[in-house]
Amino acid sequence: DQAERLTPNDGPLQVDLYRVCRARGDSAAAAAPLVRATRLADSGALPAAAAARLYRERGHEAVVRKEYREAIAFFGTAARLVPEDADLLIDLAATHLLEAETSGAGAREPGTAYRDATRILESVRRLRPDDPDALYNLATIRFRMAQFASTDTLLRGYLLLRPEDPD
What we know:
The protein has 167 residues and is mainly α. 75% of the residues lie in helices and 0% in strands. It has helices at 2-6, 11-23, 27-43, 48-64, 68-81, 86-100, 110-127, 132-144, 148-161.
């Protein structure tokens, strides 16, 4: 708190203060540093890696609330800052899959969400060709799109990497 009073525009400090408050379960106290950290990240005043971590955390929080469009926006912003982060890209693709499985007002057509997720997962495969999560998620998409031959190929590759997986 003392450091925050001395340097209120220190972006990494605001992110840390937000995380500490959130870890304590103090949502009310976490709100102000979250707003300040996001403002600094949005303005470009936060280092790219720190801003990406903040946007990723916000994306995860939005997923928990089942606000998938918001989560996709946060993950997408983070991915633009650190485009080589395969784990972040998998989070983004998985959120598109969650969105595809959600119906209701404002939901996109599942095929669009599947295409977006596929594009992202193919990027992951270029970064990490044997990433099991990318293979499994791609297989899920292909299955939902009734592309069974491709599903089979992807799942066989997945099983080579994770032979004990009960799924």
